[in-house]
Amino acid sequence: MTATGAPQPIAPERFDLEGAAGRTIRGELRVVPGAKSAVVQVHGFKGFSRFAFLPYLADQLTAAGISVVSFNFSGSGVGEDLETFSDPTAFEENSYTRELHDLGIVLAHAAREGWLGEHHGLWGHSRGGGIAILRAARDSHVQALATWAAISTVKRWPYDIADAWRARGYLEVENSRTKQTFRLHTRVLDEATEHGDGMLDIGKAAGTLLCPWLIVHGDADQTVHPAEADALAQAAGPSAELLRIPGATHTFNVAHGMTTPSPELVQATQRTVRFFAERLAAAR
Hints:
The chain is an alpha/beta fold. It has helices at about 55-65, 90-95, 95-115, 125-140, 160-170, 185-195, 200-210, 225-235, 265-280; strands at about 15-20, 25-30, 35-40, 65-70, 120-125, 140-150, 170-175, 180-185, 215-220, 240-245. It has one domain (about 15-155, about 200-280): Alpha/Beta hydrolase fold, catalytic domain (Rossmann fold).
C-alpha cells in the first residue's frame, strides 16, 4: 500500500511477439494475483503503450482487480525501449490490416498463457479505438469494449490529399511531440479505399457488436471530431453508452510525461474502470 492507502502499482512484465511482416510486437503485462478478468489496451496512431495516460489507466484498472495487457503495434515505429520512435520504416509500412493482425496475435498469445482470465475486454484510443471495434465485432470472446476518441471511419483523407499522396508515393506525417517527420506509404490509403466499405467498415462493425460498449469522447477534441462518437453510438444502438466529457481534448487534457491527471482524464478513467469492473463481472 502507498502512504495514501492506495494499492501499489503493479510492475509490468515485458513480452515480445512476432507480428505483421515479421516485425516485433513489444508489450507489457500487469497481472493482478487472482484476477478473473483482463483488459487489452490498443494505442492510437502515433501513440504507443506508454503514451501519456495509458499507464495511468492501466494502474487504475489493476487497482480495481483487473489485469492489463498493453503493447506496441509492430508498425508503431517505437523501438526496444517502448517509448522512442526509432524505426521509421515500420511506421511507413504500417496499415489497418497489419494492426488487426497484431491485435489478433496478442489476444491469441494472451489466451494461451492464461493472462486474460475468465473474461476480457478491449480498450482503444483514437485509431486504436477503431481497430478495437473491428476486432470486437468479429470476436465473440470480447465481452466488453471501451473506446476513447475513436475514429468512426478509415476514410480520413480528402480527395486532393489522397491524390497528391498517391502521386508522390508517400505522405509526410509530423509527430508534434518529438518534432520528427515520418513518411507514410500508400498502403494504409489503399486499404481505406479498397476495404473502407467492407472488412474495415467501422460503422458497420459497430452495428453488429454484441458486447456492451462505452464510448468516451471530449467535446473539445480537434483531432477526431465529436460527431464521430455520435455516429458510432447511433450505429451501435442500445448496446452502447456515450459519455461526452465537456472541455476534454483528444488526449483528455494531458500530454506525454504527465505527472498529475486532469479532471477530464479522471472522469474518463473512473467511468471506464467502473464499466469494465461491472461488465466483466456480469459476464461470469
